[in-house]
Amino acid sequence: MKKFLSALLFVGLSSHAAVWQSTNEWDMQWEQKYADWMKSDNVYATMFVNKNSAYNGGSFDCADAAYALRAIFSFENSLPFAIKNPTGSNGKFSLFTNSINKFDYVQAGPKRVIAFLNYIADMVGSENLTRHDTYPIALDSIKAGNVFSYKIKARFGKWIRHVYNIKNVNDTGTFDLIYSTQAIRKAGVPLNYRKEKPIVEKPHDVWGFKAFIWPNLHGVSYSQYPSEMRYSTEQFELASKMDTGSFFKLVKNKLKIVDETDEAVLIKAFNNVCSESQARIQYVNEAADRLAQTGGKCMDYADYDAYSTPARDKALKDAFETLWISFKEIVEKGTVSPNSNAYKLANAVFWHRSTNQPHLYEPNSAEKDLLFETCPINYKANKSIDLAELFIRIRTHALSSHPNDILENRWGENIGRRTKCKAWY
Predict the structure, then answer these.
(1) pLDDT tens figures, 37-63
(2) Is residue 179 part of a domain?
(3) Which of 18, 78, 117, 199 has the largest count of CB atoms under 10 Å?
């Protein structure tokens, strides 16, 4: 079917009916302008769902959103856009480009661009983006507009893939990320925009920090790329020799232009735990809404892929681990006062009655209240927990990633009978 669609896509190429005309060519000056555009308010979470947005109506998952942002900037600046045809066609049909005339029935401008992007969104994915349309870059060259893709093994021989768009590289070497998901595409809701979100999956194989290949360089050997494009495989070599924390600390050190205090590091780690925890509320509720739409039927592979949370739950667990490592290192260095809120919050998260960690002390009622008030997890009506309780549920494997489980099971409140619906991975 995809080959049939691909054939239709390329019937009758005609310059006067292209998706848009390209009169400029990509170079490093345009790449810098692309980075500046990504950092600007022109790229925002509701740009595909806001009825007042010129690009309202875009329906994109994570890889689609990366393609869409690149294409929209190309359209607005009369630059060429080309990606490898995912059906494997050769010759003049080897690329999808802005010269395609299939959409001349749509009003020229943003509406035609969105029609084009929605069409190819059904054919491309994270594998295409990572293997064919982007190339690995030197770590010290990472900037806004680059992407980070990862692929992790799930159960039953399945894989989980994801793509982040780097919206900004902060002065401290951290990343602001904007990205979509399968669930976002299905629900038609805004993109996720997370400031200073840590990346916790190391680069490997072809997956990692990538930049888009220029249209005129498709099919060209990497060795022939201009040196200023900073093609490099160093990230894979370094990641293979380092643990996750050490690798991303190295990345941060390569990119930072200012240092930050240990207290600031601890606050950021805590804020990330809070953000990941509260974001899970939306993910779980989206699955509950889907169940209501289907009458509680067992989810098929597509719905399971969109609404299950194994990767997100791993990211949440990793966020807690990062906070713990940061807290432990900082306590040992003695660089953050025990009287600071950052110290009190981290201690309150990890202390529990069975702990034997010498770094921890039992928080008093005021410190427990501070933790709850700073980051309540309101996962259902009249039911809220703090991060300490959530951490215990994660440690005891009480949370469920299965979208067919009831809310109480999803959050580890009830660890009794679980769904009998198939877990696809």
Answers:
(1) 999 999 999 999 999 999 999 999 999
(2) yes
(3) 117
